[in-house]
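S1.2 Input.
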Amino acid sequence: MARIDYVKPEEKDERTQELLGKLGHRNLFMMLGHSPSHFEKYVKMGHVVRYRGELDAQLREIAITRTGILCGSDYEVVAHKRIGKAAGVSDEKTEALEVGADSDAFTDIEKDVLRFTDEVVRMDKPSDATFNAVAQHMTPGALVELHLAIGFYIMTSKFLVTFGVDMQTD
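S1.3 Output.
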């Protein structure tokens, strides 16, 4: 249950109303809408993380969903399991994300990405061995994008948990 009320779109400025409309009045955005300036920048960064750059979409979604799992954000996990499926992540891999890199469902690069994700979330940075393993598979640009995706979704997951943002069923 949400710890504070969601915004009332009709009480917000025109830009916030426009963004909420474009984003389908999802609960995450209805909570972020309390700060119009930050909401707009959040949406822009989220768009860049998900739709720009060179990081493989399946690797991105595996990392994002695993981040949500590690941060205890059911809202994020449910949303990104669905998004991951649309990006081509198999049901077997989606289910194996609960286990992580120890699952045989993943390829070597996926296991390296999962180890990288786990270490960034749990220990603030990956070990040299983990960093180097991922770096062997990616360009520097994709590696930067991977880390930024994990960081963005740590923030998002913690926001969802902190504010008790309610899950949506649609």
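S1.4 Remarks. The mean pLDDT is 96.
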